[in-house]
Amino acid sequence: MYAFTLERPATVADAVKLVAAGAKPLAGGQTLLASMKLRLSAPEQLVDLGDIKELTGIKKDGNTITIGAMSRHLDVANNADVKAAFPALADLASRIGDRQVRAMGTIGGSVANNDPAACYPSAVLGSGATVITSKREIAADDFFLGLFTTALEEDELITAIRFPIPKRAVYEKLRQKASNFPLVGVFLTQSDSGVRVAVTGAGNGVFRHAGLEDALNKSFTAAAAAAVKIDASDLNSDLHASAAYRANLISVLTQRAVTRALG
Predict the structure, then answer these.
(1) What is the side-by-side strand order in the sheet with 45-48?
(2) Fewer beta carbons under 10 A from the terminal one: N or C of the chain?
(3) Where does the FAD-binding PCMH-type domain lie (predicted)?
(4) What's the predicted TM-score (pTM) here?
């Protein structure tokens, strides 16, 4: 690991100033520190966000839940409001990585990193959440731009994520046992505005599946999901699974999600 300096600001404003000057923000560190140890990343200055109280806390307000960017996965998994109002989100958080990752990793760090196989981006996109930053609010559909790429600007930090509470929601994933990342994950919600199906682990980044959404908006049944042909041409193929296998998993996991949602 290369030499670096560590700053620990107490406010978002101070953190933004440091980031604008070229410092690298440090949230849970589950990706950044590992890449630094491998010398794949060599920032000269880190900004530890852990002391910024503005970035913590989970609040239910009407039909929304707002989660501070520095909330740990365990915080989300164990929060009483999340478990009662949006159990699928609590379930997702409870199954991210392993115990150590859940104790240190943060929702803001995960969403900003936008790993193509991360769990949280599927919840944000699948629920139509809003990413709140130090500058603005960004709709989930406009936030995720591709492999490790988001709409965040260089001097912009995620401060919170606001989730609308759906009528029904389920997260299904098949875990890749070596890494604990999902080989494929499907986050499904049904609300007054319709059905959303977000897929992670299968492509160059998280994405919505229009065919499954159209079918389920017409008939919210596992049979309707099963009838949708999943195109494998743009899906990942690697040593863990072929594109065709991932396409089949998208179908199977969506069918399971619908069945669970219907009780």
Answers:
(1) 5-7, 45-48, 24-26
(2) C
(3) 1-168
(4) 0.95
pLDDT tens for each residue of 13-27: 999 999 999 999 999
Show the domain range for 2.
1-52
pLDDT digits (tens, 9 = 90+) for 179-214: 889 999 999 999 999 999 999 999 999 999 999 999
21 belongs to a structural domain: yes
Does residue 96 lie within any of the structural domains? Answer: no
Q: Are 27 and 106 in contact (CB under 8 A)?
A: yes
Please count the structural domains in the chain. 2
Task: Look up residue 130 and give its two tokens.
Answer: 């809003």
Is 228 inside any structural domain? yes
